[in-house]
Sequence to fold (345 residues):
Amino acid sequence: MKYSAFLPYLLVMALVTYAVRMIPLVLVKKKIENTFVLSFLHYMPYAVLSVMTVPAVFYATGNVYSAVVGVITALILAFFKRSLLLVAASASAAVLVSELIIRFVI
Amino acid sequence: MKEKSSFLKGIKAGLPICFGYFSVAFAFGIFALTSGLSAVQAWLISATNVTSAGQLAAVPIMVSGGTLFEMAATQFMINLRYALMSVSLSQKIDSSFRLKDKLITAFMVTDEVFAVASSQEGEVDKKFMYGLILTPYIGWSAGTITGAVAGNVLPDIVISSLGIAIFAMFIAIVVPAAREDGKTLICVVIAIALSLAFHFIPLLKQVPGGFVIIICAVTASAVATLLFPISNGKGESTS
Fold:
């Protein structure tokens, strides 16, 4: 990607991300007590990650079948609360094995 | 003497985060490369942002030629949770923090750094904080450049397998929370249903990706908030 197009994006995202983190840390002195705001901020991360994952995860590998295998692997390990690292590594390994099978066996 | 040891204590607390970040950033580096960015561009994004979900959302906006407004709005919404963490941290840090220290710390308010800092007993001094954020930053930067460079030499099949790594990590954050708490599960189900609608319904498909994330996540969170407000608002950390 050309830097003339890339740099404005980089600048905007870095500034917004930093401002979101910096302004409350510097300015806020007292605790937030508004239930609506607190609840909204509690749910938001899970909603964001869910939206980003589905359906994109099914297009993230070589084909949708290996992605399904990877997702099932991740879901099972995540359900049993394994670490982020183990879940990510196992899902990748499961995808690799299924793509090898698809390519060389089937 | 006390200050020195609290810096080392911070380093020790930050090392597990560093290793975790290296691997996630490695996957981001590959993702950025396969999306059409250069290794240096991938590294620049990581070095100036340090936000996994935000960066993952930013790359498609860049390569699809989205507007700067779409970029700004998307980053704002995805990273809004950091504002809550910064508010919480503002209560946790001690009087050794000058404005300069707050300005530096703010750059590294991530889910994991926040979680570790919050779990400390009592207040946190600036030496500890500097120790805590140092190695995760190195891990995040180094992992990105390593992934982006490795992406050029690794076989295709390995790269496509690693493509699922970041998403698997997101699954590892969401699923345990949804398992513990039915209200979060409902929020997640709503978010996924909306996301699928925007992906498959012809008219909704026209909406740019960054806005889809905002619309779906805000709607799902707002519905969940209206249905099940949480009185203490204490959320689990995520990445």
About this structure: Chain A touches chain B through 77 residues (CB under 8 Å). The two ends of chain A are 37 Å apart (CA to CA). Chain A has two domains: 1-30, 42-104. Chain A has four helices and no strands.
